[in-house]
Structures are given as C-alpha cells and as structure tokens.
Amino acid sequence: MSRQSSPDVVVVGAGFAGLYQLHRLRGLGLSARVFEAGSGIGGTWYWNRYPGARCDVESLEYSYSFSPELEQEWEWTERYPAQPEILRYAEHVAERFDLRRDIELDTRVTSAVWDDDTSRWSVTTSHGETVTARYCVFATGCLSRPKDLEIPGLDAFAGPVYSTARWPHAGVDFTGRRVAVIGTGSSGIQSVPVIAEQAAELTVYQRTANYSLPARNRPLDARTQDERKANYAAYREAARHSPAGLVGDLPTESALDASPEQRRAAFDDAWAQGSLGAMRRTYADIGLDIRANDMAADFIRGRIRDTVTDPATAEALAPSDHPFGTKRPCLDTGYYETFNSPHVHLVDLKKTPIERITERGVVTADGEVEVDDVVLATGFDAMTGALLSIDIRGRDGQALADAWADGPVSYLGLGVAGFPNLFTITGPGSPSVLSNMLVSIEQHVDWISECLARLERDRVATIEPTPQAQKDWVAHVAEVGEATLYPLAKSWYLGANVPGKPRVFMPYIGGVGAYRQICDEVAADDYRGFTLQ
Ligand code: FAD
Ligand code: N01
Question: How remote is the C-alpha of 27 from its chain's centroid?
Fold first, then answer.
C-alpha cells in the first residue's frame, strides 16, 4: 500500500490514545499516519500479558464513550476484565472504525525534528523512512517504557528472565518450577497469586510493601450492564466532571470527625466494595491529612495481619513507609492469602537488599536462593520515558531531553514551549495517571482535535505554548501536588523509581473535572497561553 510521505499528522502509538486520535483526525478530514512499535495495536493491553493482568477500573467505566453505538454493542464479561478481553475490545474498535489501514506496526519512531522554514515535523522511523507532517501527536503512553533494571548480574542468569511488561505471547508454564518475582507494584501483586498456582516454589522480592485491596472481581450480570447502558450518557458525563474520571459520591466529612465505630464501618464498607475509589472516597481528607490517612492505612494493615498467618510475613507485607494512596495502590485477587501457602516465600529487601543475580539465582545478605525463572515486575520509566527515548527537537534544534533536564515542563500537559504543533496525550502536567485513563485520553484527544479544527479553519500555521503560560502551569501543578500527601512517597509519580531521574511530581492532581474546565476555558479564550501564528 502506498503511504503518504507528507501526511497532515503523525501519531506515535496505537494504544487507546492513538486509536481514538486517528478516528478524530479522520472526522476532521486530516490525513494521518500512525506508527506503533509493537506488532499489534492496544498499547498497554498488547504488551502486558502477564498472568493475572487486568484493569482495576471497572470495565463499564474503563471504555470509550465517544460512540454510543460502540457502548451499546460491546458486552463486557467481567467487572474488572482481564488483559485478553481488553485487547479484544481495542481490536474491535480498530476494526469497527476501520483504523488499521493508517497504522503501521513494528515501526518505532526514533526522531522528530521541527523545521522552522517549512513549519513541519520530520519524523524518522526505525525502518529509516522519514515523513514530514504539520502536526505530531505523541500517544506514546505513560506506562509503556519498562524501566532499566539496576540490579547487577541479570545477564548472567542462566534461565529465562520475563518482564511483566513484555510477556511472551505464548504464555509461560511455571509448573514445577522455582520462580523469583521481583517487584510488588500492581503488576507483581496481580501476577503473584496466579504464578503461585503453578510454581513449585515462589520467592517474592519486595522492596516496598504496597497497599492492596481485594478486587472482588465477578462476572458482569446482564442487569448491571443493561442498567448502565440505559443510562450511559449520564454516567459518562458525571465521570468527565469528577475528580478522577470515576463515578461516585464525593465525601465532605473528615475522618477526624467520625467516631471509631463510624470509621470502622466506613472502611469495612469500602473494603467490601472491592474498589480503590471506594476507599479513597470514605472521607474527604484521606489524601490530604496524614492523621486521616493513617486511619485508613491502619485499617488496611489490620486486614493484612488478619489474612496472613505468619506474623513476620504479615508485618513485612504491611506498608509502613508511605501514606495510603501516595504510591498507586492495587486491587488484587488473593494476594495476601497467597503467602499462607508453604511454597510461597517473601523476601523483605528493606532488610536484605538484592546484591546481585547469578547464573543460578538471586543473592541477598541472607545468601542465594536458586531459581529456574526470574520475573521482573519492576515497573516503568513513567510519563517521560517513552517521549524521551525519541530524539525530539523543536525550534533551533532544542532537544526535548534538554528542555526536560530538570523534569518535564509543559502547558496543560498538552504542549511544550519551543515545540510547535506538538501535542502529548495524557502528558506530564495533566491528570492522566491519577485518573481513569480512558476519560483523560478522550478529553485530550477531543481538545487536540478541536484545536486542530480551529487551526485548519483559520489557516493558522503554528501553535505553541508561551514560556510564561508554561511556567505558570508548571508552578500550579507543583503547588497543588505539594498540598497533598503524594510527595511523602518515593513513587514513580515523582520519578523516584528510576535512579537519576529528576524528582518532580509529574501528574496534575487538580482533578479531571476542574482540569477539563481549565482546558475548555483556554480554548474558548482563543487558546489563551498559546501563540498562534
Ligand atoms: P499505551 O497503551 O501505553 O500505548 C502507547 C503505545 O505507544 C504503545 O503501544 C507503544 O508501543 C507505542 N510507542 C511508544 N513509543 C513509541 C515510539 N517511539 N514509536 C512507536 N510507537 C511507540 N489505567 C486505568 O485507567 N485503569 C486501569 O485499570 C489500568 N490498568 C493498567 C494495567 C497495566 C498493566 C498497565 C501497565 C497500565 C494500566 N493503566 C490503567 C494505564 C494504561 O496505560 C492506560 O489506561 C492506557 O491503556 C494508556 O493508553 P495509551 O494509548 O495512552 O498508552
Ligand atoms: O510497577 P511499579 P508496576 N529492586 O513501579 C520494585 C499501572 N498498572 O508495573 O516500590 C527491587 O508500581 C518496586 O519497588 P519500589 C499502575 O498505574 C496497573 O507494578 O520502587 N525492587 C515496586 O515494588 C501501576 O502503578 C495495573 O521500592 C525493585 C515494583 O518493582 C503502574 O502501572 C496493573 C527494583 C514496581 O512497581 C506500574 O505498575 C499493572 C529494584 N531494583 C500496572 N526496581 C492494574 O491493576 C523496582 N522495584 C490496573
């Protein structure tokens, strides 16, 4: 098939963001080429095929809202569907909206260079092709670049090393094998119970104990689905204007004003619901006041101690070094219970850090544990990793890597000063990873699309944030972040999981609804804070 060498738009990435962006560009009559490094579409749900992978936002909310027909025709089978089902959904969307013909798989974008003379981006791919485009939209994902592991000796390990974020498509049979899982974030916590079902011995290496709530996943019954479908428009609208892109009543009461019995009942109820949102919404100050947060954290630690029979293991699993919610908490199915099985062992890396990996296994101060397989559930170079692994150069050859040397700066998480006609979807400085991502993706894509429509209609050649607007926005993002408990944790939100990465609280915590309003006002005020030429 012959492809345009100078489409109107290049989109990088074919996850949920890239797919919807392509659909909207078609609607605007703009030509586009979408480059995707993977061999399939779906982004997160293409790559993360580890056992137990599933979403922790309910399917009826973690899905596109842009097409009422799509909403009505797609049937979800579970409250929190597993990776294969979410990938099937992405593939269905691609087929239904005939998106595949503009998507080039196995094609990594290696550089994007702005040319001031032609007002176009030159985008080069891993196949050596260079195309030019008026606009470049980076839909490269916040959690798409696995972080490099800093543990020495990994190359020496004689057996297979699996990464949860690059899981073999054929699956892995751990039957009868001795397995090490390193990492206890969401990926580790989801995969450990499933791997434990097969493995002969499973050793879990935990650096930071995380808060996890039972998912209480279940098949979706027809009544629940039908009820939602009958009222979908209202639910979606509520989600768009909510703090986190999720529907639910907002608390006004302080945990400090409740009696111990009331708090216990509220936390019990949230625990029984199987939803991160429910626990966060117990009281208004859970994320703001350390005393309120401690009450929720104590409750969760109590439930862990109730579940795990060995007291030392329970103590190690009970998070103690960061407030609840300041690292992303998890939803699990049987995670804590798994440690009651005699063949499952926990190694607390706070006490005995990993020294190295050898040909045979993992060495800590306690000696070597021999294993057949190593599973890395060690996370991502989040929010900036995928963008900075592309050589992006704006005006006067300025590299994005230099502009972001002290941490990412942007205006609204949508554009960067000095980088005209460049847009990031759920970029740093936007609510993105603090929200139901589908809601945030749709909001960004819609905003970008309306913006492009305006530029096309009025023959505007370039749009770019002013340095002042960017500076003010960055200061605002930092200010609202600092007013919360988030900075108290060494989290990937702050870049703390990657050695040497600047410590900047990257997402915007002002809330999805408030943020949408700001973006809408900026657009209504003829793109206040942007220079249009
Ligand atoms: P991605 O899905 O990450 O897609 C980006 C794509 O860009 C990738 O396919 C990548 O290969 C491609 N790409 C990157 N760089 C290049 C390049 N240089 N050239 C070409 N292609 C490139 N969010 C929620 O809201 N709820 C959840 O329950 C939830 N569960 C998650 C579970 C897991 C295991 C993970 C890892 C994340 C989860 N997330 C969840 C976050 C999830 O990333 C988003 O919900 C969403 O899927 C992101 O879509 P995206 O299109 O923005 O990015
Ligand atoms: O990654 P993580 P993840 N030595 O960074 C540890 C989404 N997601 O892939 O906490 C030893 O959370 C690290 O330790 P520490 C979700 O947004 C969602 O699990 O840095 N350990 C941590 O325990 C999530 O937040 C779902 O001290 C090392 C773990 O590895 C995000 O993706 C499912 C180490 C990494 O945890 C990332 O989750 C999966 C080292 N050198 C993912 N380096 C859902 O359920 C790192 N670790 C929706």
Answer: 27
Residue 294 Cα to chain centre, angstroms: 26
In order of start, what are the domains of the chain with their CATH numbers?
9-146+382-458+511-522 (3.50.50.60)
Q: How far away, in angstroms, is 144 Cα from ligand 1 center?
A: 5
pLDDT band at residue 2 using 50, 70 and 90 as cut-offs: low
| pLDDT, tens digit (0-9, with 9 covering 90-100), for 278-311 | 999 999 999 999 999 999 999 999 999 999 999 9
Burial class (CB in 10 A: 0-12, 13-18, 19+), 192: buried
**Three-state SS for 297?**
helix
Name all residues whose Cβ lies below 6 A of ligand 2.
55-56, 143, 149-151, 164, 182-188, 190, 205, 207-208, 328, 331, 349, 354, 377-380, 433, 492, 497
Buried b (16+ CB within 10 A) or exposed e, 343-374: ebebbbbeeeebbebeeebbbbeeeebebbbb
- For ligand 2, mutation pick of 48, 85, 143 (most atoms within 8 Å of CB): 143
Distances, alpha carbon 307 to alpha carbons 96, 317, 336, 339, 375, in Å: 45, 11, 7, 9, 25
CB atoms within 10 A of CB 278: 18
